[in-house]
Queue: 2 jobs
Job 1
Amino acid sequence: VKALAAAVAALALSASPALGASPSLARGKVLFVAACGSCHTLAAAGTHGRKGPNLGSEDSSYREVVDRVVRGGDGMPALGKTLTRRQIADIAAFVAHATAGAAHDD
Ligand code: HEC
């Protein structure tokens, strides 16, 4: 968790405040690799984690991803205090975009 916090802090420093208000898919992808990739496989991010489900196999909405990342649960850590709201928004936008069109199983 320390290594993750350091990686996330480094990313926060490198992100320019001039990038604008809307979520960034490019930043979301980099953050996903750093914060989620060790546990989740997602082809669009090139990750192969196996502790959590393969996120590419079902359609996750932006809201679902935000909720899950903030709250965690069922073996997933809550990251709402590790990541900033902005970072979570970027990650959720990236995951929703990457999984759009996959089967939805809720
Ligand atoms: C330490 C491992 C770990 C990390 C890090 C992690 N997850 Fe998870 N995640 C899990 C596990 C385990 C589950 C399965 C929980 C369950 O069975 O419902 C899960 C479930 C999910 C789900 C629900 C998937 C589904 O099929 O219902 C989403 C979405 C998700 N994670 C997104 C993320 C995102 C985005 C990140 C990075 C910010 C992340 N996770 C980081 C372990 C992790």
Note: The mean pLDDT is 88.
Job 2
Amino acid sequence: MRLLALLLALPLLGQHEQMRKPGEKHPFIGNATAIAAGLKLFNGGCAGCHGANGQGGRGPNLAGGLALWHSRNDDEYFGILRKGISGGGMPGSTLPDDDLWRVVAYVRSLRAPASELDVPGNKENGQVIFHGKGGCANCHAVAGNGGRIGPDLSNIGATRPLTNLRESILDPDSDGAFGFRRATVSFRDTARAPLSGVLRNQSNYSLQLIDSSGDIRLVEMRDVATLKVEDSSPMPKDFRTRLTKDELTDLLAWLSRLSTRKD
Ligand code: HEC
Ligand code: HEC
């Protein structure tokens, strides 16, 4: 790790890129075509160590759930990939500069907020699916519109990488949005019927359950006999089959653009 820090401290490792000032955005970064080409190159030369989706293997996970877009600049990434990490088990790349930049664009996209990529798809249709066929709005609000069972998604494009959004929809149990688990409470007063819902705002004294109609039920902990919290996400698990590939693409195009930043 010390060696890595040293490498990062070296300015302008991408010496072949003299046309561009250091720190300036490379045209491939955020570009959908370059990212798709980068993915192919990644599968050829990197996935063997870093996993097919960059999730890690012999090499570290490159696809952290959090958007760390600004933690390391493009030139630093390019430099790491060109030189490799000596002693760390990571060989340097012999790809031509343009191809290596495509790989950088792909690796960056694994952590960049989706709103910073030009995500393909029909976003208007995505919005229609969100409120219609997908049933997403039953549980999620956007700009004050929609349900309260799941997290508000008004700013989701600006805070999650695209891969993470896709994963949230296709494999809801894998992501890290905790604090939204389904729970069932039984009461000391056995005459009182058990309550189920999505658990919110639990403290030592009270908790809230959001029931299926979106109403918040406040429960005092002193009344609780048992609290059973489920491990799995309350989100439906069948979107992979319920939505077509194009519908998913459109949905992601819309979600990616959800940002509360006004620009
Ligand atoms: C032979 C296995 C191997 C191959 C092939 C490989 N890597 Fe790595 N990579 C590693 C290892 C191991 C590390 C960790 C080295 C260390 O930190 O000491 C690493 C580190 C990295 C890092 C730094 C991670 C971080 O954020 O600290 C990046 C980025 C990276 N690899 C991307 C790639 C890309 C892109 C390719 C393909 C061009 C690639 N690697 C090919 C094994 C590999
Ligand atoms: C039955 C309610 C429900 C439905 C329907 C639902 N979700 Fe969710 N969703 C949740 C809950 C609860 C969470 C938080 C727990 C989790 O991540 O699994 C969540 C999490 C998410 C996240 C991750 C949020 C974050 O902060 O990381 C995204 C993105 C998302 N949902 C999108 C969708 C989309 C798109 C649809 C429609 C195709 C949808 N959801 C349908 C309940 C729902």
Note: Residues 1-18 have pLDDT under 50 and may be disordered.
